[in-house]
Every structure is written in structure tokens, then in C-alpha cells.
Amino acid sequence: MLGELQVRVAQTVEEALEFFQELIVLHEKRWEKRGFAGAFASAARKSFHLDFIRSAFDEGRVHLLRVVCGSDTVGILYNFQANGYVSFYQSGFDYPADRRLKPGLLTHHMAIEHYRTNNFLEYDFLASEKGEFQYKRSLSTGERPLFWVSFSRPGTKHRFLRCLRWFRETRRLVFGSPAVAQMTAEV
Questions:
Q1: pLDDT per residue over 112-127, tens digit each?
Q2: pLDDT band at 129 (very low <50, low <70, confident <90, very high)
Q3: For labelling, which of 8, 30, 69, 118 has a CA lying 20 to 30 Å from the CA of 92?
């Protein structure tokens, strides 16, 4: 990859859907190499997100950003936005053979700079089921706890499921909190 690094932000719903389709290809390629299905392997989940992008894009609640080097895609981010707060949801990166190159780190860095220079307040990496990742530690300026709340009908089945979830969650306590990058400009 040779050329100028740029952040391209989807300007229309059609462009956002195009970015999303490319994100899926990159995302699935990475997870398939690891022997797993990616986040959009389910047709129902993919359909949900396509519908969500169509309905929320024009309101500014969905952002899709593509970082390019020349004409080559480095990475694509699928983010949510509300009141100046950007929440990273999902990504797809083009991983080169040279493992020293870090397309994810570069893409997130450029996205944070884009949002900072456009007066957004915060870029939130949100939670991770597998614990913290290097890019979160490298790019974050703080963290805060994230709490999950769920409701269910009373009954034996739901009590049993709640116990199973409690056991699973107590094992996760060793993992950190979601990381955030504050959008404070240094003066």
C-alpha cells in the first residue's frame, strides 16, 4: 500500500451500505482465518444491521468511516453517534503480510483524530468479551464501568439461566472496563 492516508466518511445511505458490505468481507476474512464465524455470519444479524443503517444514517446516528492509503482500504469502522459521543461498534481491517503494520491501530487513530477535529466529545471503544485489546490501551485516555441490565419473566427456567449467567459473569470480572478516548483539545 502506497499513497496518502485519508479518512473517508460515508456521505449517503448508499455509500454507508457499500462501506458496510466491504467491512463484512474484511471482518469475516479475519475471523474465518481464526476458525470462527464473524459478527455478521448470521443472515438475520446482517439483515438487522442493514435495516438499522438504512433507518438511522440520515439522522446521524450511524457513522461508517473508511481509512485508505492511496486507493487501498486499510480499515472500515461502524460507529454509533449521539449528542457528540461516538461509540465504536464493529470493524473490518485489511491485514497485510507484514505483521509490523497495524491497520486497526492506524484506523482507530485516524478516526479519533477525525472526530476530535470535528468537535465530537468522545470516542468510546465500548466493552469487549475477550478483555482489553492493545489498541484500547494505546489510544484510550480513560475508562469507566459498563453495566448490563436484563429483565425476564419469573420462573424456574429463568432462575436457572440467571444462575448460569452469574457464574459466567463472575469469571469475567478479571477483565477491564471499556476504554474511552476523551476528545479534549490541548491548548
A1: 999 999 999 999 988 6
A2: low
A3: 118
Residue 38 and residue 30: Cα distance in Å, rounded? 8
Give me the pLDDT at residue 174, please. 46
What does the longest C-alpha to C-alpha distance in the chain come to?
Answer: 61
Angle among Cα 24, 144, 168 to the nearest 5 degrees reads 70
95: buried, middle or exposed (CB in 10 Å: 19+, 13-18, 0-12)?
Answer: middle
pLDDT of residue 33: 85
128 in the Ramachandran plot: left (φ > 0), alpha (ψ -120 to 50) or beta?
Answer: beta
Beta strands in the chain (DSSP E): 5-9, 62-69, 72-82, 85-93, 122-126, 142-143, 179-182
Q: Report d(CA 135, CA 120) in Å as an integer.
A: 20
Give the domain ranges of the chain: 5-145+178-182
pLDDT band at 183 (very low <50, low <70, confident <90, very high): low
First to last CA, the chain: 35
